[in-house]
Design brief:
Blueprint lengths: L1 H37 L20 E3 L5 E3 L7 E8 L3 H12 L6 E6 L5 H10 L4 E5 L4 H6 L6 E6 L2 E6 L2 H4 L2
Parallel strand pairs: 3-4, 4-5
Antiparallel strand pairs: 1-2, 3-6, 6-7
Length: 173
């Protein structure tokens, strides 16, 4: 009986110490996150292209049938956006672009079937502020600019990534 109490006490002591260590680790992590928020540190999507990355070679055709290549991005500053139908953040970014165009050339790439009415409607709405092209799976544009989900926005300055993000305030500030 005494042996059982001793073993039980030892197990209980080990569990209490383990719980204490986990609690201290959690408090330390919480403090780190609080400091990040206080210092306005933004966690960056690691899949996004990095500032200074060069845009690779690509060829695309706009919905009007015009050729659009990486050479057009080497001429000045251009905002490149990747959108998809049914994407709520894409709809929010599209609305911001329509309400307040960026004041520079905008190239919008839309993933979708050219026969899909939602894809056509998204392209038609963006044509007011951008040149629009449709993407297909594994398109050379997504590899050249390193598109990372939807929406992806990339500010390109003379063929080099100047900023990237999923929202306008990340790219145009």
């Amino acid at each position: 009986m005494v042996e059982t109490l001793v073993v039980g006490s030892v197990v209980l002591a080990v569990l209490v110490v383990a719980n204490l260590l986990l609690t201290l680790a959690l408090v330390g992590r919480l403090r780190t996150l609080q400091e990040m928020v206080a210092n306005q540190v933004v966690l960056r999507d690691p899949a996004l292209p990095l500032k200074g990355d060069e845009v690779g070679r690509f060829e695309a055709t706009t919905v009007e049938g015009e050729a659009f290549t990486d050479a057009a991005l080497r001429e000045g500053r251009t905002l490149v956006g990747f959108f998809a139908t049914g994407c709520r953040p894409c709809a929010s970014v599209r609305k911001q672009l329509l309400e307040s165009p960026p004041g520079m050339p905008l190239m919008a790439f839309i993933e979708g079937d050219p026969g899909d009415p939602d894809t056509v409607a998204l392209g038609a709405s963006l044509k007011h502020v951008a040149r629009v092209a449709l993407l297909s799976e594994g398109d050379s544009v997504t590899r050249a600019i390193k598109q990372a989900g939807y929406p992806t926005l990339v500010l390109v300055d003379k063929g080099v990534v100047a900023a990237s993000g999923h929202y306008l305030h990340e790219v145009l500030t």
